[in-house]
Automatic annotation (TrEMBL):
Chain spans, region Disordered: 87-111
Highest taxon of the lineage: Bacteria
UniProt cross-references to InterPro entries, sorted A to Z: DUF5076
Stretches with biased composition (Acidic residues): 89-103
Pfam families for this protein: DUF5076
Organism of derivation: Allosphingosinicella deserti
Protein name: DUF5076 domain-containing protein
Amino acid sequence: MSDDAIPTGADAGAISTIDKEELLARSVEVVRMWVENGGGGTFIIKPDRLESPEMFGMMLADCARHAAVAYAHELGITQSAAMDAIWEGLDEERDDPSGEPETIETSRRTH
């Protein structure tokens, strides 16, 4: 991907939710993700919007399956091949993280 292939910035090149209102009507946003060209990622996560870390893990697994469908369609490969590549990337990052997470904002629930 070239530096000018996709606009950059918080809102530039944002994934549109126009015409998705009905689909999202009962939903709440829990994470936003950005990636730098050839670099690291930025993730803004609202953990108070999910009841447990396990639910976040379930969402990641669901996201991976949806991504496999999207990549299969985009790249003309099988969903299985796309899923295998996604798991490979997850395993590589889990085994050897490319960086330490930096907290930019914290909020704590009061119990």
